[in-house]
Design goal:
The structure holds two protein chains of two kinds. By secondary structure, chain A is mainly alpha-helical. Chain A has 15 helices and no strands. Chain A is about 60% helix and about 0% strand. Among the domains of chain B are: about 170 residues, NADH-ubiquinone oxidoreductase 51kDa subunit (Rossmann fold), CATH 3.40.50; about 70 residues, no CATH class. Chain B is an alpha/beta fold. The termini of chain B are far apart. The chains are: A mainly alpha, B alpha/beta.
């Protein structure tokens, strides 16, 4: 029979699989990050695209290197290195020298992911390690190279003042009053913050664009709301201790962090309960750092600290078994 | 879970996990059951769970349809000649799940006095003990695929308190439509068979579970129940059809019992411990034939499907029909077929040899092309938690797989390995295509080896 010459596969079941793949998930996350990048491009100019490209290149180069060294098939096509590169760029000031993100991305990717065994094995969120490393290595560039937003691709402004959170950290009430005095109608300030007409890191400034991307991920079932909502709730719990709770909730990187960094599968817990505790921990730590710590923003370190706790949270909050222990009948 | 899937069905279902793969039932659901009788049948003597039967016949012997050709010494489920003819061979041959087994090959040759298995007198009034004997002698086993001897399942322990019979018409495996067709075409036999089982176990209440995607079958069964007037028979049985959500693994005993009765079978327990006995619709049908006609299980209905087979069919074939003959009868399979399975795509087994034949537990024969199945290499776990969400038992396949990769199989019991019934929801859901069920199987095998050694 001619059929006998064909190759038949033998395997354990099941023999069908959902259409979802890891690469598909990663590229959908990358896609969902684009609205925020488009916004940054529109208000900060072409330079953000160069910074983002530099960061992605650094991450992909490190991934390439790590795969070569460990002699494994390249995992670049799965999109996770590109994802880390995008996210790292989103945490950087738009006025930063273009070569720096390349170095930061490369180091972060290589040490946080490559050295720990590649996809699935990193303990920390790669992008956030990159940001932390860059804060330590390039402290001046990371905290002063802000750009004033201008809609319509006007030539990027010279370096503007610090971010709102940084101004308030240093100047207190007076600084807050100054921010609110820029426009006569204070409602306009909040709208500017929500839309993204503010100084800040590339991907964090527009809450609206972040929510747009997040809505896509929720619709596709890639992220769930447990983590983002509990992060925001944790931050909100400590908002009353800040000078301006509204500004506190709308500024900084909490929205980017809550929806795109804290939800990273690899570094966050699996069960809803674990995820809620994880999220609340991030939110509270962020608030503590912001209100009483030395930094104006705390989301990056808060997420990293909770990343450490993820294995423990997975141990403490296990899924509930369908049937409880009992004497077999 | 996506925002849209928060719209939950209001139909009854099990409480945790589960998946809804492409049903692919449209390939065969409207095809009536067709008879196919090959010229040669090859019967592996292992047709049910438990000890294997031993052949009673030798080469060149003449057998008549229905003759016992193998028995289990000390009592068990016998194997019958599904066709009349001459024993061609008794030798080692391929088996769908055991790989090799003793196989009795019969060259079909109709005799002048073919048995007709007429209706027996007073079959309805038979004492329960005799009914059980007929079921045993007819070689009835769980035809849903489990192949557990039915007479043993229906012989209740003395202290058992049972109040409900559940008849499983879920057919939750994609592709398969044989139970659906049986419910549509032979609803009277399925209903009467269910009534007999209810009588045997002494319950007055019977629930037939049918998934939402088989509404015509549910309707047909309801009509038949009304026509037969079971509530006026002796003993009266209140029989209802319950339509459940279409959700795999609805047909698993524990899940079905929970969906239909709300009772949770305890860990390591049987439905019996919550007062329920579960039987498949095809088994109910076989019980009726065994008791009413004293007819053994000689044939079964199976679904031949998949995008690889030329003409998909629902076939009634003698037990022992070879896959090769079925392939030829269905017009052959295409070049791009990459897997041939017995059973459904979730829990079925791949076969390597077309010489394998249909056993009592073969509910389907699938020819899957590359487009339908998954041949991708697997990737590391990214801790997405999809497998944990999908597991109907609340286990942690992700952790088991990580421990297995680390070479620590004997530390996996804490993640529920021993409660896993290998439904496959985890592997199906995994975006990294990890063979989670296989990790579970290997872990269980490691425990079995370990327990043997420490004895």
């Amino acid at each position: 029979m001619s059929e006998s010459s064909r190759t038949l596969h033998l395997s354990s079941g099941p023999h069908i699989a959902s259409g979802r793949s890891t690469a598909q998930i990663m590229w959908m996350v990358n896609l969902s990050l684009l609205p925020a990048l488009l916004w940054a491009w529109a208000v900060f100019g072409w330079v953000v695209l160069a910074i983002t490209a530099s960061s992605i290149l650094g991450c992909v180069a490190a991934e390439f290197l790590a795969c070569k060294i460990s002699k494994t098939t390249s995992t670049i096509p799965d999109g996770s290195a590109v994802c880390s590169g995008l996210l790292l760029a989103y945490t950087l000031p738009p006025g930063m020298p273009i070569w720096m993100p390349f170095v930061g991305g490369m180091l972060a990717m290589f040490f946080t992911k490559g050295m720990f065994g590649g996809l699935g094995y990193n303990i920390f969120n790669v992008a956030l390690v990159g940001r932390a490393m860059m804060m330590a290595t390039f402290p001046v560039e990371m905290t002063t190279r802000w750009v004033a937003p201008h809609l319509g691709l006007a030539k990027a402004d010279t370096i503007s003042a610090a971010t709102a959170l940084a101004q308030i950290k240093l100047g207190g009430e007076a600084a807050l009053a100054k921010i609110l005095a820029v426009v006569p109608d204070s409602g306009q300030v909040w709208l500017d913050f929500f839309l993204g007409m503010r100084a800040g890191s590339i991907g964090e400034v527009s809450v609206l664009m972040i929510l747009l991307g997040a809505a896509f991920l929720l619709w596709k079932g890639i992220i769930k709301l447990y983590i983002p909502i509990s992060v925001l709730a944790g931050v909100a719990l400590l908002a009353p201790f800040s000078l301006s709770p509204t500004l506190y909730m709308l500024s900084g990187g909490i929205w980017l962090g809550a929806f795109f960094m804290a939800t990273d599968y690899v570094t966050s817990p699996i069960t809803p309960k674990g995820q809620i505790v994880f999220g609340l921990g991030i939110g509270l730590l962020t608030g503590i750092i912001r209100n009483w710590g030395g930094y104006p923003e705390g989301i990056c370190y808060a997420i990293m600290l909770m990343n450490i706790l993820t294995p423990a949270l997975n141990e403490w909050f296990r899924p509930k078994r369908l049937t409880a222990d009992g004497a077999p009948s | 879970m996506s925002l849209l899937s928060w719209r939950k069905s209001t139909l009854p279902t099990f409480s945790r996990g589960g998946i809804h793969p492409d049903e692919r039932k449209e390939l065969t659901e409207n095809l009536p059951i067709e008879d196919f009788i090959p010229t040669v049948v090859s019967l592996p003597v292992s047709q049910s769970l438990g000890a294997a039967a031993e052949p009673l016949v030798a080469k060149a012997a003449k057998v008549k349809r229905g003759d016992v050709i193998a028995t289990v010494p000390g009592g068990g489920v016998s194997v019958h000649a599904p066709v009349s003819g001459i024993i061609k061979n008794v030798q080692t041959g391929p088996h769908a799940s055991l790989v090799y087994d003793t196989v009795i090959t019969i060259q079909a040759k109709p005799s002048d006095d073919e048995p007709e298995f007429p209706e027996q007198a007073d079959w309805q009034a038979l004492p329960v003990a005799q009914m059980l004997e007929r079921i045993r002698d007819a070689g009835v086993v769980g035809l849903g695929g489990a192949t557990f001897p039915t007479y043993r399942k229906l012989t209740l322990p003395k202290n058992a308190k049972v109040d409900t019979l559940v008849i499983n018409g879920s057919e939750c495996e994609p592709y398969l439509t044989c139970d659906y067709r049986l419910m549509l075409e032979e609803s009277d036999k399925v209903v009467l068979g269910s009534w007999l089982i209810a009588k045997i176990i002494g319950v007055g209440s019977c629930v037939i579970g049918v998934e939402d995607n088989k509404q015509p079958a549910a309707e047909k069964m309801r009509e038949t129940i009304a026509e037969l007037g079971l509530e006026k028979m002796d003993p009266p049985v209140k029989m209802t059809v319950m339509v459940t959500e279409t959700r795999y693994p609805q047909g698993s005993e524990k899940q079905l019992v929970q969906a239909l009765t709300g009772r949770l079978v305890p860990k390591g327990g049987l439905p019996l411990s919550v007062g329920v006995v579960v039987q498949n619709v095809a088994t109910a049908y076989a019980c009726l034939e065994a008791i009413r006609n004293a007819k053994p299980v000689l044939e079964r209905v199976l679904t031949v499907s998949g995008l690889g087979i030329k003409t998909p069919k629902n076939l009634r074939v003698p037990i022992g029909t070879s896959i090769e003959d079925i392939v030829a009868h269905c017009g052959g399979y295409s070049e791009d077929t990459v897997k041939i399975l017995t059973g459904g795509p979730m829990m079925g087994r791949t076969i390597a040899d077309l010489g394998v034949s249909v056993t009592k537990g073969t509910s389907g024969l699938l020819f899957l092309t590359e487009a339908e199945t998954n041949l991708d290499a697997y990737q590391p776990c990214i801790s997405c938690g999809e497998c944990v969400d999908a597991c109907p038992m609340g286990l942690e396949p992700n952790r088991v797989s990580q421990y297995m990769e680390a070479g620590r199989p004997l530390e996996t019991e804490q993640f529920g390995v021993k409660e896993c019934f290998e439904c496959g929801c985890c592997s199906y859901s995994c975006p990294s295509k990890r063979p989670l069920v296989q990790f579970m199987q290997v872990a269980k095998a490691a425990y079995r080896r370990h327990e043997r050694k420490s004895k």
